[in-house]
Backbone:
């Protein structure tokens, strides 16, 4: 049955109290429990878990907006629960992104930046996992698609366009900066694990370099689109049916004008 918030709030309060007793972050701890529970309740199918997120999105939004660590924990909880089926995890992450429970930058930081102890970088090993690459690619594509939509829409105002373009550039910059550290071997987590001479470290550097080339190209493509859109190259052309409708209207107006006695004089 669908229980109201009032029924499980005492459980969350108990988790907060126990976390505080153990010097843990109460919000992060309760977020882990809650997100894992959502995944478990919805584990019957992808549609079930998406429905669970729909019902609990308000609480998840509150948790996600509380701190970067809480957002990172949401991602970790989903990825850990669905570790055997990463494709499902990515679909859930996308849903959370659509609801603004997560942000594109929080996903990039969790996967590549690792500025928060709760992360999925795995000391750089994530660079060798295809679903991690897909996670970042999907996130970047969603942001760039939004920019393209605004640039080709005649109804979008310039302020909104400029804001989204700036955000897209910030996202690609964050991706590049994080990858540059892995590619050069200067990432703190990588330096702490060795002296740079091991096969594992060399592999991580190579993966970092490959990822960096890919996303630098993607960023260049999107920058080219922005420049060309400003010249009007990607302006949306009227649909054929709209043209036909306009032509029919014009013909009707002309016929009315010609039938007007005043025009005949």
Residues:
């Amino acid at each position: 049955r669908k229980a109201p918030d009032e029924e499980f709030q005492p459980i969350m309060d108990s988790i907060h109290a126990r976390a505080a007793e153990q010097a843990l972050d109460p919000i992060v701890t309760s977020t882990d429990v809650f997100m894992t529970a959502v995944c478990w309740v919805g584990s019957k199918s992808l549609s079930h878990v998406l429905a669970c997120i729909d019902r609990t999105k308000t609480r998840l939004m509150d948790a996600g907006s509380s701190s970067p660590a809480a957002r990172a924990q949401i991602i970790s909880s989903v990825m850990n629960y669905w570790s055997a089926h990463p494709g499902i995890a990515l679909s859930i992450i996308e849903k959370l992104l659509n609801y603004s429970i997560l942000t594109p930058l929080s996903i990039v930081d969790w996967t590549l930046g690792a500025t928060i102890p709760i992360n999925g970088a795995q000391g750089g090993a994530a660079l060798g996992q295809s679903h991690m690459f897909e996670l970042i690619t999907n996130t970047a594509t969603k942001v760039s698609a939004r920019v393209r939509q605004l640039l080709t829409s005649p109804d979008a105002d310039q302020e909104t366009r400029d804001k989204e373009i700036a955000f897209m550039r910030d996202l690609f910059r964050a991706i590049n900066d994080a990858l540059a550290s892995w590619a050069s071997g200067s990432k703190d987590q990588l330096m702490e694990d060795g002296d740079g001479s091991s096969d594992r470290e060399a592999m991580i550097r190579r993966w970092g370099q490959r990822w960096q080339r890919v996303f630098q190209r993607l960023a260049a493509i999107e920058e080219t689109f922005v420049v060309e859109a400003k010249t009007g190259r990607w302006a949306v052309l009227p649909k054929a049916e709209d043209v036909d409708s306009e032509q029919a209207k014009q013909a009707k107006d002309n016929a009315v004008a010609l039938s007007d006695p005043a025009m005949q004089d």
